[in-house]
Specification:
The protein is an alpha/beta fold. It contains four helices and six strands. The longest helix has 17 residues.
């Protein structure tokens, strides 16, 4: 679990003239980008109760709100066919800005589709990706 020096920090940056919000947890040598699902946000799809189960000395987790979601508003989300492909560019640029390349990517729900585009656009030099099944619908904690 989170120690006093392992807080989740929330930041915003500008990528392609859009305000992009994200949170960061951990200081480990293995960066992981976590992408939220449709009509979601990192606070809902990647809550601290999940992030804190990761060892902060092993991973650096970055959870992004794609344009139009959560802390990356305004403007509101434009729902278009190629939205996941467009979101992938924001994801790659964020991780490059944070100097966290190469990285592993994982997505929740529609974020999984975006993760596939991130891997395709970033290539093997930037992204480590292994297709896997989505998380279970309900997260079960081992905490008492």
């Amino acid at each position: 679990m989170v120690e006093d020096d392992q807080k989740i920090t929330e930041e915003t940056t500008v990528i392609n003239d859009h305000k992009i919000g994200y949170c960061k947890y951990g200081k480990g040598p293995n960066p992981v980008l976590c992408i939220c699902g449709a009509v979601g946000c990192y606070k809902k799809d990647w809550p601290s109760s999940i992030l804190q189960h990761f060892d902060a000395d092993l991973v650096t987790l970055v959870c992004i709100d794609p344009p139009g979601y959560g802390t990356s508003r305004p403007p509101d989300r434009i729902q278009e066919v190629n939205r996941c492909m467009k979101d992938a560019d924001f994801c790659l640029k964020l991780m490059e800005q944070l100097n966290l390349v190469p990285f592993t990517v994982m997505g929740w729900s529609e974020g999984s589709r975006t993760a596939i585009h991130v891997a395709a656009q970033g290539g093997k030099e930037k992204v480590r990706f292994s297709p896997h099944r989505s998380f279970a619908k309900k997260f079960v904690s081992c905490k008492k």
